[in-house]
Request: fold
Amino acid sequence: MAAASRILPRLSAQALADLPPTVARPAYALERTRIGIVHLGAGAFHRAHQAVYVDDLLADHPDWAICGVSLHNGEVRDALRPQDGLYALALLGPQTAWRVIGALRELLCARDEGTAVLARLADPAVRLVTLTITEKGYCLAGEDLDFTHPDIVHDLAAPATPRSAIGYLAAGLRERRQRGIAPYTVLSCDNLAGNGHRLRRAVLQYAQRIDTALAAWIEAEVAFPCSMVDSITPATDDALRGRADAALGCVDAWPIQRETYAQWVIEDRFCNERPPFERLGATLSHDIAGYDRAKLRLLNGAHSSLAYLGSLMELDSVADAMGAPALAGFVERLMRGHIAPAIALPEGLEADRYIGAILERFRNPSIRHRLSQIAWDGSQKLPVRLLGTLGESLAQGRSIDALCLPIAAWMHFVRRQAQRGVALVDPLNERLTAVGLACTGDPAADVAAFLAIKEVFAPWSGEAAYVAAQQRAYAALGDASPSSVSRALGESLSG
Ligand code: CS2
Reply:
């Protein structure tokens, strides 16, 4: 394959005309588009989701092209800039459909092109800023901005040359206010319930510290709609690269893949012009709170459960985990019996059907979605995916034993990785590794050490009923070997 790929040309605007007819390509002239959106966090999820919606729009509305910004590293820019921003998307159904996306008309890395990023943010043609910066990019401590976060400390000292997304959003808005330019709408597309509210609060708290008049202007003039995004997007691997080269007949340095299903529910609250997203299959709604909660707690909560329990069972992918009867049965019961009853679903969303469709997506044999990818950033994901349901169930007097099992699995996973000397992909890696290394296997002491991590566990985690249930779940997983995890899941199902 290496020898063959050396003689293939690189994907580029020029190469578009020679793509095989089986590969769909932009239905618009790339050079006739104009940047209308700045996106912070131009990773695979953005390129597989929002950028595809925009790609469908550009033929009729060429002034909504995207400037994709990576905040910290230049890998995406370096891969895509030589390709004129083009990249291949594999849509993983029974047969793979290939499509080249052209919506990212500009790529920047803020770390070494901060001035260009700020210039784009101040450009009046930019009317929308979207974000996929993952949970940790919000620099939150609970509901508030974490003023001790190193990037926030840096940005407050040097607000004109920021590092964080919060700092960039505020610097761009400050410039627009000074120049009398209407603000952009700030649309969060991250997996956080009430993502727009959280982002607004963080930006306001930050602005308050640098310029109170700016904070007042943002409060009055800038909209931060919430949105719910959904599409399973496994990370790019060599197998995909090889398939992309073969399908395209040229080399794409960073193709991406996702399932065919995609959903985007956007709160209809914009302070500047917006793209007609509803024409592209997105849902515009005035109340999206039920949707984001349902998706995060059911789909993502189940995903994280599979990730930690399945990793302990030495399984590789979500489809593999769904092929292990004890685990698949447990997760289905967790969703139907313990998560769904604890949330109010929005009108029109029927729990049984929604859960059935999620389980079907998890079983998709065309997708190899690695559990190790989903296991990243557990300290950031568990609070929004599982601990919210757990805390509310505890308060309502429901059974929490089943919900404690995936949390216990995370604790064992952290312990196992630490003791094997494998670094966690998690912003709290150092702290978690220290806790993991100190674990002795004694449920009371080990669980207490985890529950003391206040960035993850809310105050209710001190309640005796929860502590006891969490210890029982930790003990039930025994030595966390595949057989003891499987046994614990079986017992939980029969209990
Ligand atoms: C996954 C999500 O990696 C993860 O943590 O749970 O990326 C999930 O695939 C998406 O949210 C699905 O929309």
In short: The longest helix spans residues 289-312. Confidence is low (pLDDT under 50) at residues 1-5. The chain has 21 helices and 14 strands.
